[in-house]
Amino acid sequence: MFSCRQIYDLITEYDEGSLETADRRRFEAHVVICPPCRGFLSQMRATREHLGHGSPPEFPAELEDSIVSAFQAWKKQQR
Ligand SMILES: [Zn+2]
After folding, report:
1. If both were cysteines, with which of 24, 35, 65, 73 could 19 make a disulfide (CB 3.0 to 4.6 Å apart)?
2. Distance from residue 72's CA to the centre of ligand 1 (Å)
3. Tens-binned pLDDT, residue by residue, of the chain (79 aa)
4. For the chain, which residues make up each domain, given as ranges?
């Protein structure tokens, strides 16, 4: 499992699609369970789109679903 610090270091490579499959899976596994890193990733993509540096790769739909449920579970824990 990557730490948040490693996510910050690798986020550019992830976004460019230059991570190896194993690292990419570990990256996604972290982002799914870590709302702050998920927010960081979408913020970075929004910035890239705003700057017009091409469109980022899409999240697979099933990963998007698991992020949503992980986030909802996380929100429940906060109550
Ligand atoms: Zn994190």
Report:
1. 24
2. 16
3. 899 999 999 999 998 899 999 999 999 999 999 999 999 999 888 887 777 655 556 666 777 777 778 888 888 887 6
4. 4-78
User: Class for domain 4-78, per CATH?
Assistant: mainly alpha
Task: Tell me, in angstroms, the distance from the centre of ligand 1 to residue 33's CA.
Answer: 8
Characterize 16-27 residue by residue with b for buried, 16 or more Cβ atoms within 10 angstroms of its Cβ, and e for exposed.
eeebeeeeeebb
What is the distance in A from the centroid of ligand 1 to the CA of 54?
25
How deeply is 7 buried, as exposed, middle or buried, from its count of CB atoms within 10 A (0-12, 13-18, 19+)?
buried
The pTM of this model reads 0.60
